[in-house]
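REQUEST ID: PR-0412
SUBMITTED BY: lab tech R.K.
PRIORITY: routine
TASK: structure prediction, single protein chain
INPUT:
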Amino acid sequence: MTARTLVFLSLAIGLVAPVSLAAADAPERFSRDVAPIFVKRCLECHNERDAAGKLVLIDRSSLTAGGESGPAVIARNPDQSNLLTRVLAGEMPPPKRGHSQKLADAEIAVLRDWIATGANWPDGRKLDLYEATSEVRGGRDWWSLQPVTRPGIPSLNVPKRDSIDSPVDAFIQAKLSAARMQPAPVADRATLIKRVSFDLLGLPPTYEDVQEFVADTAPDAFERLVDRLLASPQFGERWGRYWLDIVRYADTCGYERDQEKPFAWKYRDWVVSAINADIPYDQFILEQLAGDELPDRSENSVIATGFLRLGTWNDEPNDPDEYKYERLEDMVHTTSTAFLGLTVKCARCHDHKFDPIPQTDYYRMAAAFWPGAIDPRGRELLGGPTKDELGYDVMGWTDIRQPPPLHLLRKGEPKHPLGVVDPGHLSLVPAMNRPLEPAPLGAKTTHRRRQLAEWIASPHNPLTPRVLANRYWMNHFGAGLVRSVDNFGYTGDNPTHPELLDWLASEITSHDRTSGWTSLKRFHRLLVTSATFRQSSLHPQQDQYVAHDAGNHLWWHAERRRLDSEPLRDRLLFVGGDLDTRMTGPGFKPTIQAEALEGLSRKEGAWKPSPAHEQRRRAVYMFSQRSLLPPLMTTFDFVDTTLPCVQRPVSTVAPQALALLNNGFAHERSTALALRIRREIPAANTGDNKLRERHIQRAWQVALSRNPTVSEIAAAKAHLETQAARFATPKSSHAVPEASLPTAGLTLHLSASTAVRVDREGRVEEWLDQSGQNHHATQPVADQRPLLVKNAINSQPILRLDGQRRFMHLAGQVVTSQSFAIFAVVTDQSTTNSHREIFSNWNGSAGNSGTSLFLGMTGVDTTRLCDDFSGVGHVTDRQKPFVLSGVNAANGVAIHQTGNELSARPQPIGPRNLKTNYVIGQQGNIDGEYWHGDIAELLVYDRELKDAERQAITRYLAKKYKLSQVREATPDRSPDFLALASLCHVLLNTNEFVYVD
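STATUS: complete
OUTPUT:
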């Protein structure tokens, strides 16, 4: 035996020899003074799994074993102890990001004294990184992980006041009283109905609703109003949108191809329906995580599992086998954020730096999703199960295999697997920490997700009810009792009112914590009927209180809140009387300005806006494409759909004002409001001096749900007068445009009175183009030729089509520009009310089924210029000859009937694929949608037309065919109307319109 060996042995014996720290409080001193230093400063690197230098510092035996550098501690010899030497040198703990982590002198003194007195380590004492909260991380004693107990309601030593009429108010008032503060007075009744309507429905009350509520002096008037709103189907749409944010809802996959996820909209509809039906929260959780594993599984419950499919999906990852771990992380992150308010995903690569979530816990939770369609599969499945595996043709999730072992990954790297981790629950609540049970015999799935869902949904889980109660508080009041609503961990905020939060958490799960979850609608009612919700946003002592509590942590006033992007868009439609309240079904695609499409690699087929009438639905039904979100929505802080979002950022920035001022949709809505006012209050005669004042009053009533003040009326009158004068046309331009045909840009001109060749039966074989562009019309098939009828329209000939496969082919590409104009002299004799086209280049096999150009009609009497501008306007006397024109330009699109505007909007139609073959009398190559009526003349311009040119062409055709008088100076384009639309635009741009109160 060498001398060195003898020295080593003696040192080891010295460490483990009985110590004479005879003080009876040695174990207590260790736990009080020494253990916290090891836990706080050492165990992150010196634990059983990640033992730096192979030194483990969790119990006596590991300390005795030492590490690569030999024994860590030599009892009674601090100066020879490696641990203290490294600590003194600032090497332990090591620097982080170049900053020293050296222990404080007081901590060093504790360690030195502990070693000097024998390095006593109590028998059986095992340190745990998360055993207690310290200055650097939360332990299992962290406040949010403790059982929810129902606190007593504060007794206030103040006179009975109307503002203290619920337990919620008692908790709030207790802290205000302690701070010598009082809540703001109750908001006026007009403000209250607006606030609660936006809060519960995301829609404003009508002026009539406000007046009725203000006049209702019954003590329970507000409660009855709340009950009516909670029973409205619009409640589920408003509060469903909050949940869709959390679950990163979108209709597409993201990444380069951003494919549509079929039936994602069914999940959206499930959420809205579940909230309206007030299903218990535990059922809400169970169906989304394990709807396929429930004994009463149904198509509806499988649709709910779409929760797990809503994340982004890359069909071409760099490494498909590694990508499955990214998808796994998405499911863990979304689940833990949505239900638990914790950042569990941070433990994928290492033990959580701040919360009691060891790395093994991440993989225990991830194992619940491991049996699903995680591995690379066919691209057509978009990362999910097949229809047969699900049992329904929906977007859902289910187990598809007996899962292989899931390994813990070193630093989260798939190429460095460590030990196998068995599925289980998070260990942060010891009383609920247990492994998962095997699936029942004969089960088709592993039941892992169901057990995870049951663990989350248990009323004994302290996180779930606290997180939900806080989230509802935030959505009703503007901020959470815990301001970091998605983080109940160590780096999050502490609750402003911990007793109130626990009282609400116990209220939401029943008072005794044993009988499950209570009605969530009842919980909403509890919050919004409180005096705290009903107080004003203004306080008599505003300046004084702001100096004391600028963040309103004591809830001494209501928060003034800006409308989210969806309620703002809905309100713009609502005031114009155009909001379509149909529920459910595939989402609509809004019109997006051409400029927003410029950055896309495939502009022509990238976006096909829905018909105009579909775009009037509520914004919750808007198709959400991750790569192309509408600019107006994103300007007003629309959600980032790639990650769970519990609380949207709320900004007030210049682009918002510019967007409302200049956006085409906003101008369209201003015009719609002006039209509504004109319809409701028509001019009795031009001498009605009070008409403007009546229009002003109605504008305020519809836009802002109130009457204007005297000063507002005066300012509005001045605005109308100024704007009417500005819009008035100079006298020199009042001359009627000449009835002539511009020739510049004329690319097709067909007239039944010129160059028509017919067969022996009088049916048209060839119709020659008079524009000089040689886009001649032909029909080689005799049975499909239109009939030429002479002297049909005021002595002029026409081509007659009977809706029975009569049509003609056009030669060449008729239209090449996205700005164009089409004029047709026609009659419409259709009796089917289906689609029917005059001119079209639709070709589904060529890929322009959604981007084609056509002019025709649908329904009884509505017109269509393409799928992007369809079902708009109403033709009068369609069986009689008329000029139907469709004009598209950079400043908008419009359809006219013999000069009368039928429909218009300030945005042009979306980009068209103009390269496919053109026809007359049907919808392209569809062999359908045939025109039933006469066509006398057809003109197409391959450029933008000035309005004076459009008028001149219309007058030329009207004169030629002796059609009804052209009325170009329509009331809805007169200077007075444009001035009214301008006033409406001002109202839609006010703070009062954009903010709730």
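NOTES: The first strand starts at residue 407 and ends at 409.
REVIEWED BY: pending
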